[in-house]
Fold each of these.
Amino acid sequence: MRVAQVVYDDLTWDTVTTSFETLFDSAYSVSVFSRYGERPEQVWLKFRADDARLHDSLGTALAGAARATVELHPIRSMSAEATTAQLGQPGRWDERLPHFRAAFQPSAGEEIQTEFFVDLRDGAAALEALRGIAPALDDVLLVSEIRTVAADALWMSPTYGRHSAAFHFTWRRDPPPSIGQSASSRCAWPLCASASLGKGLPSIGVRCRRVGL
């Protein structure tokens, strides 16, 4: 399979929250990178090379966003040299679906990662909860990635039996990100969130806030 990826800037949070499922269904793979400030920072869309949507404006899913004309790193301050080719260049799936080239150091290198999964229907509400604690994350969060994951039948999987929205956090190692991890795990999630067992777990567990759980 051949895949091409494009990146968009200047999306608004209103567009993401009101069209959450539409946005994340607008390509083969969609990632929103942000630090939960005034605006999302980047939207990465990966298409099968023969998908006509690669050349579309995508309408309401990306209303007001501008297609990037230079390659970008998910962490704005870093060089895009390590990222896989963007700008709509088709290539082998294994050279496009990862965000970073195999020969380079991924992400920032010196970091701690955590990830939470929520029911896809709760994705927009979880996003709003995280935006509400953005000031507590500012000094310790390098970047966060929002994506969606299909349900599976693996009973230890965080997406067992439900389509999910995933919120991935890349934290600074210095200073220790315990404040940000605690804030992200204690924010007013209107849902039951599950943590990835393959990432560093937060210091305070996520609480199920949905009535009846």
Amino acid sequence: MTSTVGNVTAADAAVANSDQQNSDQHNSDLQHSGELPNASRHPLADPPEFLFDSDEKESRWRARFAATRVGLPDPARDEPSNTVLVSNVSGKYELHSWRPGSAELPQATSRKDGTTHGGLSPDGSQLWWFDDTAGDEFGQWRVQPFLAGPEQATEALPGVEPGYPAGLEVGATVVLAGFSDDDGSRIHLRGNETTSIVYSHTEDAGVGALSRDESIWVLSHSEHGDSRYPALRALSVQSGDVLGELSDAPGRGLNAGTFSPVVGDQRLLVGHERHGREELLIWDLATGLVTELAIDLPGDLDADFYPDASALLIVHTHAARTTLHRYDLETTALTCLSVATGAISGALVRPDGEIWYRHSSA
């Protein structure tokens, strides 16, 4: 944008004022007519009342769009009988509490624009959920008892300024919450009844993971200036000391997955794109060793640990279809699991070894 500084005469001002009045009148006419300048005009759509002559076919396609959708239940870390899931059974997407085997699905949140961002505390006693304003994704975390309704929700992190959510890890003894705003990114740590900022930067950053013993947390950051390809930094929860750095920048990113669910096992699953697709590696924070997993599958890979951390549940996506596999971390044996054909949008292994997954046959 350029500007010119000079003297303005009365005549110039009069002409400018006249031009402005004409412009205002033109814009007003456009507003009243509902038309935009140089806008293309298209005929109004005239959809038929019914698409099919067959009542059966008509009801089938309508049912597809009106069907209730239910997300994969997310269990509490230490109390898997308490889960939270997203469903539109109420007419909009909200969080619901659920206990496996129960026919009841208590609605936990109720907001005009719906609620989809939330999770349980490790013991399953509390539900954390993100509360924004009219769906703008800018807000604060709230917390309420499991099975309770939204009227019992309270501010989860009093004194913390609102922002866009940038990761949340709720432990038994600590909470790490990331936020971003116009000033950049900040990470808050709550422990021993106090909350403090343990990281801030003008570039994008967020909370990546928290170890099972809650002694290590992982920061996902773009201090190198490219948020498309984040790097990882492991830090001590207690001292704040940097325990390790991992980066594939520039041009490639790393995504923090989950830590091993075994206390004292500091292996972290990490997603990478070193070979042109989404693959996996393990970063052992106890030794610093980084091990790429050579998994012989052609598509993109995602994974989570089995409860004893001896294997990974692999979610493999290729040619618009998803398959599940068990990958033994000691023998590297890859076993294809029997699942329904289609697309799988989430999967997990229960403590008893049972596999849950969310599936669509479309």
